[in-house]
């Protein structure tokens, strides 16, 4: 019943909202719709088609380690359910998985209470449902990868309790090891909480210090064994994180409280999580009224040892302060401030409060009038304060205050009355479940969700247009660029090598390189959507996905999801395939994954926020210091200003409105050739500050960018006037790094063709092994690649392991002699072998210990 009740309630709710498979809505919103669903699609690819992508994938941006990604996103065994769904129907699978996790969360808490002999009968599903519907779980329903922590935490605590009672340590070790394997991030938070729990646990009885040390030693032993058994996941991942996340550790550390502390009281009411709370909200700690009443009873009752009460108050206070004080909050998050979804560890607080309440609850429990009146006084003051603060709280309104107060008063009255007959118990159970269900519904109703039609329209089209690219490519490595995208994880959905990704374990080198070549990037993402002919060629972009501009008003179509169109490729790239919505074009100037280049490529220097010059230098140095650049700055012929002064110099100019009306500036130029033109935009030229029109066509949404990015403008427009209009969204605008460039197409094509002749001929191509033969010349003896030079890659030339160098701040390069060579690139996950040895050794140790204890028991019986 503890499984079925929350599972059935949530199923009924999802069905009432017409979520797939019950209708045309889905659970997809925020990260679940923009990130996780793509990883779930990749999960099926790994299991059913390409196991090598468990370790490395060229679908992760330009190529990246994936073992750490999957250890964070995909190691939950419950994900097996998703194998039954293709990527078109994944939203239905995600709903099933979500319902299952709600049910298992309720069951695990009830199971732990039952085994602790604390609760039985009708109280089990009541406490189980309360735990499953806690504020943290509902708020993080969209972060499916974290929910296993809530499922396993009661089992870990139960196993710890049983181990302390001299039962098998496996009861503690197994669920804790599972937690570390399934999600190391949440396991870290669980580990910190276990330390707090043990400090509380040793106060239960007047134990002697020797016994207390023995209990702590048992706990430490079990934890160390779990660390050893799970080493094969966390050690390689930790090594990877040192190459990515560690670059930003202790960022944003501030020695102060994050918000006005009493505001947290508002989070004790239902429905207090919404879109505004996602980036910088308060901790989600809603549990309903009963656990708060029981907590008050726990710390004021004479039936509980005062030593236990003191430690309870201390630990509760520590957890509360951790959810508001910057340094402690940072500690709980592994010393890295979370991007969105703050206070991710608040589930341990919810568990703690409910666990305390369940430890003292029994059907005949009655609060004294003094306890009830004192609690009522505190509650009244809290509600009064929150009512006063309502105008400044973006998560609470008057109706929520009234609903929560009514439930609280009713339950407090019921807990104060002494007649606890059968009908009282039924009414209490219904009231508790009604309150947490109401809180859950109010929260989930705060969000909008992606329609199933929009999702399936996009995925079906992507599957169709990329079908030719999914054929075995043993002798052909290539990447695919996109002029449209639903998410940055499209390459995982379409099963092709791309150049965009959104990952919490993104290597910082990928972001750094993308900034150099003028592509949007951040700490957790890169987004290749404003490429040039040069960057396409260097990055092995053999194909390009482009919209054919059909049905732009229909959600999910390429025309509706276009970011930057690629007019620079028109008439140059050839059409390979079309369908009613999309074009698949082929790049005739693409360079292979490895090719011969000049040694000068090793000496390239870069400038910050100057992507066109950076691409010029990369290309020139690859070709041996060619004197003519591919891109040169071009001038605007005319400037038209409306409600602002026309600047004499465009790049770096400051515009200011003459009055409060609309203001704009239009830049005109006439191409003197059919060559492609590009425009650079500094990070101040963003969606908040400006709207951009190119030849009267609006750029729908400028991607977020921290550095200067490139916007492809036009191609094959010789003698035709071109217009670029900037409409000010604020009173002023800085035309930061706004510069027009034209391309020397003839020189580019000549040099690209020359370098293609020195390309590698592949004999093997997989995510972790690329092999082939290459013929290097005296003028181009450098083996240059578009494979990221990150830890794990090894290069063998003519059968011998060879040292590598880094080209263009990112890619593998090998200095060789002229002539023909057999080259192999192999990827081995760093530290995985060592980690497997440690895990296997820990397993052998535990089996040996179990065998030893079994032998001792048999020997004792025989005596």
Q: What is shown here, in short?
A:
The protein has 863 residues and is α+β, with helices and mostly antiparallel strands. The strands form eight sheets. A five-stranded antiparallel sheet has the order 11-13-18-15-16, with no helix packed on it. It has a five-stranded antiparallel sheet with strand order 21-22-28-24-25, with no helix packed on it. Strands 3-6-8-7 form a four-stranded mixed sheet.
* Quaternary organisation of the protein chains: single chain
The portion of residues forming beta strands comes to 5-15%
Largest beta-sheet details: 5 strands, antiparallel
| 3D shape | globular
Q: What's the N-to-C terminus distance?
A: 47 Å
Radius of gyration: 31 Å
Mean pLDDT value: 95
Helix content: 40-55%
Q: Total strand count, please?
A: 28
Helix count, DSSP H or I runs of 4 or more residues:
26
Number of structurally distinct domains: 4
Strand arrangement within the widest β-sheet reads 11-13-18-15-16
Category from helices, strands and their pairing: alpha+beta
Query: Unreliable segments (pLDDT under 50, ≥5 consecutive)?
Result: none
What is the strand and helix layout of this fold?
Layout: H1 4-16, H2 30-48, E1 56-57, E2 64-65, H3 67-73, H4 90-115, H5 123-132, H6 135-139, H7 147-164, H8 170-182, H9 184-201, H10 209-229, H11 231-241, H12 277-280, H13 289-300, H14 306-322, H15 326-332, H16 346-360, H17 369-389, H18 398-416, H19 422-444, H20 452-465, E3 479-482, H21 490-494, E4 501-502, H22 508-516, E5 525-526, H23 533-538, E6 541-547, E7 574-578, E8 582-586, E9 594-597, H24 611-622, E10 631-634, E11 638-642, E12 654-656, E13 664-669, E14 677-681, E15 690-694, E16 697-698, E17 709-714, E18 722-728, E19 732-734, E20 739-743, H25 745-756, E21 761-765, E22 769-776, E23 782-788, E24 793-797, E25 800-802, E26 805-807, E27 811-815, E28 819-827, H26 832-862
Parallel strand pairs: 3-6
Antiparallel strand pairs: 1-2, 4-5, 6-8, 7-8, 9-23, 10-20, 11-13, 12-19, 13-18, 14-17, 14-20, 15-16, 15-18, 21-22, 22-28, 23-27, 24-25, 24-28, 26-27
Helix pairs in contact: 1-4, 3-11, 4-5, 4-7, 5-19, 7-8, 8-9, 8-10, 9-14, 10-26, 11-26, 13-16, 17-18, 18-19
